[in-house]
Amino acid sequence: MQRQGIISVCGLLRCGWKGALVRQSREAHTDMFRLCVVGSGGVGKSSLTIRYLKNEFTEYYDPTLEETYRKEIEYNGKLYDVEIVDTAGQEEFSSFRDSSVATGDAFLVLFAINSTSSWHELKDLRSKIIQDRQLSSTIPMVLVANKLDLDGEREVNKDEVLEYCNSAEVNIPLIETSAKTGLNVEESFQLMMQQIQRIQPALLERTVPKNHANKPQKKDNCVIL
Q1: How far is CA 15 from CA 31, 61, 223, in A?
Q2: Using an 8 Å Cβ cutoff, are 125 and 109 in contact?
Q3: Which domain of life is it from (predicted)?
Q4: Which whole number is the average pLDDT over 40-60?
Q5: Is the dihedral of CA 161, 120, 189, 178 positive or negative?
Q6: Is 39 left (phi over 0), alpha (psi -120 to 50) or beta?
Q7: Residue 27: inside a domain
Q8: Which domain holds residue 37?
Q9: For the segment 144-185, what is each residue's pLDDT rounded down to a tens digit?
Q10: Which member of 6, 9, 187, 214 has the greatest number of CB atoms within 10 A?
Q11: Which of 129, 107, 196, 116 is nearest to 161 (CA)?
Q12: CA-CA distance, 111 to 31, in Å (whole number)?
C-alpha cells in the first residue's frame, strides 16, 4: 500500500489541474509569476519538477543547469500562466540560485528526509530568502520533505520539522513527497497555489491569460485528503 505523506495544513483540497508546458528562456515575464523550486543539491528538485510537469521520474540531473518552464495551470476554474524555475542546487552554482531568490514570487523549498545536511541547509536557505527580500509573511512558501520512498533511511525527525514549520517565526505549510513514486507531487504545487491565493492574491489576478479572463468558474470535484 502506498504511504501517505504528512500534509500539515487543514482543509487541503485535491482538485483537477491541467495545463500546457512550454520551456522558457530566463527572461522575466510581467504576465506570470515565478515559482522557484529551491534546495541543496541532490534533494530531488529536478525530479519533483519533471514529475509534476511530465509525470516522469528523472533520477539523474545536471547540477549546473537552471531550467525554466512555463505552464498554464487550471486552478479553481481559472487558468494561470506560471513560470516554474528549477534552480541549480550545488554550492558552486549558488549564483544561479541567488538570482532566482531575488526574482522569485513564490518558493517550494525542498530537503530530503534521508539527509540531515539538506535539512540544515533548507533552514539557512529560507532565512536567506527572508533576509534578501526583507519580507517574511508576504512571501508564499511551502516546505517540501522529499524522498518519502526512502522512509526506511530517514535521518530527519518528523516532529522536529513540524515544530519548525508551526513555529510563530516560520509558520509555513509542510508536505511530504516522493518524486520517484509521484506521491503528493501534484498536491505540493496545489498547496503552493493555495498559499499564493492566501498571501499574495494579486499574483493570481495578474496571471490570468487575456483570452480566459472572463471564463466562468466551473465546479470542481474535490475531496478532502
Answers
A1: 24, 30, 7
A2: yes
A3: Eukaryota
A4: 91
A5: negative
A6: left
A7: no
A8: 33-204
A9: 999 999 999 999 999 999 999 999 999 999 999 999 999 999
A10: 187
A11: 116
A12: 30
pLDDT digits (tens, 9 = 90+) for 82-114: 999 998 655 544 555 566 777 889 999 999 999
- Asked whether residue 15 is domain-assigned, the answer is no
| C-alpha to C-alpha distance for 77 and 87, rounded to whole angstroms | 29
- Tens digit of each residue's pLDDT (9 = 90 or more) over 192-213: 999 998 998 888 877 756 554 4
For residue 33, the cross-strand partners are 82
| Ranges 62-66, 134-138, 177-181: which has the least confidence | 62-66
Q: Mean of the pLDDT values across residues 14-41?
A: 58
Residue 173 is assigned to a structural domain of this protein = yes
Residue with cell 512558501: 141
Q: How many domains does the chain have?
A: 1
| Residue 72, beta-bridge partner list | 81
Pairing of strands 13-14, 223-224: antiparallel
Give the cell for residue 74: 487550471
CATH number, domain containing residue 110: 3.40.50.300
For residues 38 and 130, what is the distance between their CA atoms, to the nearest angstrom?
A: 14
DSSP 128: H
pLDDT for residue 152: 98
Nearest to 81 by CA among 21, 26, 139, 141: 21
Rg (alpha carbons) of the chain, rounded to whole number: 16
CB-based contacts of 156: which residues, under 8 Å, 6+ apart? 111, 113, 114, 115, 116, 119, 145
What pTM does this model have?
Answer: 0.78
